[in-house]
Amino acid sequence: MTDPARAAVEDPWPAPRAHRPVEATVTLPGSKSLTNRALVLAAVADGPSVVRRALRSRDTSLMAAALTSLGAHVDTTGEDWRVTPGALAGDTSVDCGLAGTVMRFVPPVAGLSTGTVSFDGDPHMRKRPVGQVLGALRALGIDVAGDALPFAVRGTGSVPGGTVVVDASASSQFISALLLAGARYERGVDVRHEGAPVPSLPHIDMTVAMLREHGVGVDDTGPDRWSVAPGPVRAVNHLIEPDLSNAAPFLALAAVSGGTVTVRDWPRHTTQAGDALRDILAAMGCDVSLDDAGLTVAGPDELHGVDLDLHDVGELAPAVAALCALATTPSHLRGIAHIRGHETDRLAALATELGRLGADVTEHPDGLELRPAPLHGGVFRTYADHRMAHAGVVVGAAVDGVLVEDVATTGKTFPDFAGFWAGLLA
Ligand SMILES: O=C(O)C1=C[C@@H](OP(=O)(O)O)[C@@H](O)[C@H](O)C1
Ligand SMILES: C=C(OP(=O)(O)O)C(=O)O
């Protein structure tokens, strides 16, 4: 599927400079993680529902298309997406693009269908890990051919379910995937993790919280163990919060320009991992406040480096690394070996591309060290990774002559990111 959210922009894109402190209040598009969970739950629910203020981007369009091809109907014409569950028929194909949530969350739903569902995606998607999910689905009684993309799930209309052990040290999405459809399996699902610590735990908490909103019984009291009771998934309307992880470059703009940026509708309580930006930016010297206007970040005179374990919030690493490259003291970002399996090997990509612009970076197996160094212009390559583009534009706001390659790749989770960004710096 071509990318409808891919805006036509100059490539490489001259990242606009912030020549003065940026003062802005922004309304950001909805959360990818919340939208794609809401769509999956709506598709396996016991009646129609509405996903209000759904994110319209490549990842969510691919999810809507996948669920529609399985037999649910997702009407994406308005701002509020209407989902009507239907008989899950199978004998179809699913394009995962580069969306981890589509490649991991849809196969457990396909197991409930009555036909063969073939999965494939972008070239790099064939390298992203999914074997643990597919092995778990086999153990739960589903016929699955393959251990990586392309693979096929052959549904028989019902899934025995039961107990399964997975190693989710490469991605929290392995656990979320098994939980989201698990209530529809005959014996539910009881998932245990065995291996190095699971990354991105807030994302599993988000899955559990949303399942409970749908009336599903989930026991997550034991360490590394999650049990979903069999039963109906109640149809529930969701209102999607703004994507707090995608707020990172906008808040970073305040940090690097010494300006003030407010993100409207920042929730007081949220399951989104991106909420950690409040503490991260405060640790870097920003003034951070949350009130009825939203989350406001005021940049400091001098940005401090940080020593942070980002294991729970790895998706923030690219924007944070860009800030660290511009900081006046050294930084160490740790605990993020798993982001080598994201849209690209993000540790290698960040070390290479920040390094090409003059940053003093050391790549470690599980993180990055950055020391203060004068940066200069040049082409910042993005490897089809929306968050690499975010890192590039943040550096470009502070450094003359940064050209961001394929900035349109941001359409994965943000429609017309470049236009929106340029508007703030005009
Ligand atoms: O479940 C989700 O919505 C996500 C989980 C995380 O994945 P990993 O656990 O693979 O880091 C996160 O990085 C990704 O952007 C979204
Ligand atoms: C890791 C990410 O995406 P995905 O959902 O494709 O895993 C991300 O958005 O940072």
TrEMBL record:
SUPFAM superfamilies: EPT/RTPC-like. GO terms for molecular function: 3-phosphoshikimate 1-carboxyvinyltransferase activity. Transmembrane segments: none annotated. It catalyses: 3-phosphoshikimate + phosphoenolpyruvate = 5-O-(1-carboxyvinyl)-3-phosphoshikimate + phosphate. The keyword Transferase applies. The keyword Cell division does not apply. Pathway: Metabolic intermediate biosynthesis; chorismate biosynthesis; chorismate from D-erythrose 4-phosphate and phosphoenolpyruvate: step 6/7. InterPro entries: Enolpyruvate_Tfrase_dom, Enolpyruvate_Tfrase_sf, EPSP_synthase, EPSP_synthase_CS, RNA3'P_cycl/enolpyr_Trfase_a/b. Phosphoenolpyruvate binds at residues 32, 100, 128, 173, 346, 387, 412. Its EC number is 2.5.1.19. Coiled coil: none annotated. Monomer. Catalyzes the transfer of the enolpyruvyl moiety of phosphoenolpyruvate (PEP) to the 5-hydroxyl of shikimate-3-phosphate (S3P) to produce enolpyruvyl shikimate-3-phosphate and inorganic phosphate. Belongs to the EPSP synthase family. This is 3-phosphoshikimate 1-carboxyvinyltransferase.
